[in-house]
Amino acid sequence: MTTKSFFIFTFLCGMFLTEVNAQLKPLQKADSLFDAGHWFEASIEYERTMYLETGRDKMNEARFRKALSYRYLNRYDDALAELDRIPLFSMADSMKARILYEKAFNLLLTDKHEVALWNFRRIENRYSQQLSPSMIPLEIIILNHSRKWKEAKATFLSLVDSVTADSAKSVLWKDSVYTLYAEDHIPKTYREEKARNLSRFIPGAGHVYAGHPWEGAASFLLNGAAAGVAIHQLWYKYYFTAYIAGFGVFYKSYFGGMERAAHLAEIAGHNEMKRFNDKCSALMMQILQ
Amino acid sequence: MRYVLTPFFVFLMIIGFGQKSPDAGFIEHLMNREYHKEVVHLLDEAEYKNASPRLQDSLNYMKGWSLYSLKELKRSAHALKLVSSPSPFYHKSRFFAAYNHAHLTNYKKALETLENIKTTDDNLQNLKHFEKSGIALLQRDYKAFDQQFDQVDTSYYPIAKASGNMERYAQKLKAHNKKSPWVAGMMSALVPGSGKIYAGKTGQGISSFLTVGGMGFVTWENYRKNGWKDFKTLFFATVFSAFYAGNIHGTVMTVKITENEFQKEYDNKILFHLHIPLRNVFN
């Protein structure tokens, strides 16, 4: 009898322990994988949670966390697709704000600045009580990318107000914000078309405009030399040489130079914005700490 | 003794119950949602050799299908061929495994896989002949193509359209005359660019003619005015020679590339029309 009881106990104990383990698995496992930085595996476990779960709130939470995993995996479009599948009606305002914030974040990362800003505006207009100071930096970065400097500065100043009551600190930080957004510190606009047109009239001028003066000078000299060869050969009645060796090379370097200038302008624009946002982020980190 | 054995048994049971085979329902759910990477990841991690044969077949099919969707054809063929004949996925798996081998240009394995498919169904036999004929065409074995294609019932709806196309491709391939790289090279040596026009690249041919011809005229002009010993003449003559020789070499390469492009284009067309009936029959 005792032996029988012993085996029954062992069996039930084993069953119970494994069952508890299984019950806890999906969401907890997903969260622990997420926390350990195994985002791909976490995304699978969040999907499993959605597959097994019938409660809407838990499903939405799992889908939201899955979208977060995708963002960490740099799969921004997939993250947006998951967020779009979360129905916003009959949901707590705090959750709605988190979802819209996450959408704005992913939209910023896919360079859709206007839509990102629109999502942020939705949080401000409908769920302003849910806006926390930690959410504001994203709005500032989006505004910077959209080149809305006045609004970005105003938002930055409101961030300073919201995080400190210390007037000395506030003055110091606000000074930094004013300096950051001073006319001569905000990123210059580099227009590709302008760079192309400058190089159209003076070869190499577009390169100088894009911040590459030495390359501009080289381009100017190359075009000048090719045109010079062409004219020189024409003058001495070497018509074929003038056309092929002079104008041929000039044609290639002239039009190639225009495209190169436009490309450099595009890169310069990106770099300038990145430099500015790095400075901006450093200041935001300082304030939020 | 009992007190020693109790924790040991509990431990064994936890291990035993804990090692569940993968949740086929969830994996199917992932597959239907086209999360193929996730399916492959889970099945790569899982241990299901001890699962029931039916479950093993289903899991191997799902793994093979997801790998196929991810274009990992070699691994896909391997997984699909593990599906055994009692499975409802058996025929689909074998036909797609053969198709994967064909796509990987492993025609011998593709034919072997098709040959080993167990079926008494007339439609599947018909499909088998059709796939074999396509593989023969991929091998450019026209005799084998004709033999297999003669056995295909082209009125069978899922393959009717594809078989019409396959027949047309066979005729075009049979009628195709390969361009000779030597002839093209000789033509470009006589008239720069003409070899490329012969190879079917008219635009490139005209461009080569203008470039090499232009450089020739520049050399001739400098030679006429300054003689051979002048630096400019020597310089342009060197450039012209490089362009001239480069153009001949380029022409030979163009013929080879054009021929490869032609063959590749027909390979893709054949593979596409081998694939359509499989989707029609099994989806």
Q: What would a concise description of this structure say?
A:
The complex is a heterodimer of chains A (289) and B (283). With 289 residues, chain A is mainly α. Helices cover 80% and strands 0% of the residues of chain A.
Q: Name the overall outline of chain B.
A: elongated
The assigned CATH architecture of the domain at 24-131 in chain A is Alpha Horseshoe
* Total count of helical runs of at least 4 residues of chain B: 14
Chains forming the largest contact: A-B, 30 and 32 residues
What's the SSE pattern of chain B? HHHHHHHHHHHHHH
CATH topology-level fold name of the domain at 24-131 in chain A: Serine Threonine Protein Phosphatase 5, Tetratricopeptide repeat
Q: How far apart are the first and last residues' alpha carbons of chain B, in Å?
A: 60 Å
Query: What profile does the largest beta sheet of chain B have?
Result: none
Report Rg of chain B. Answer: 30 Å
- Into which percent range does the helicity of residues of chain B fall? over 70%
Note the quaternary state here.
heterodimer
Note the main sheet of chain A.
none
- Compute the number of strand runs of chain A: 0
Strand content of chain B: under 5%
Radius of gyration of chain A, rounded?
A: 30 Å
**Category by helix and strand content of chain A:** mainly alpha
Order of helices and strands of chain A: HHHHHHHHHHHHH
Low-confidence stretches of chain A: 16-21
Structural class of chain B: mainly alpha
CATH superfamily of the domain at 24-131 in chain A: Tetratricopeptide repeat domain
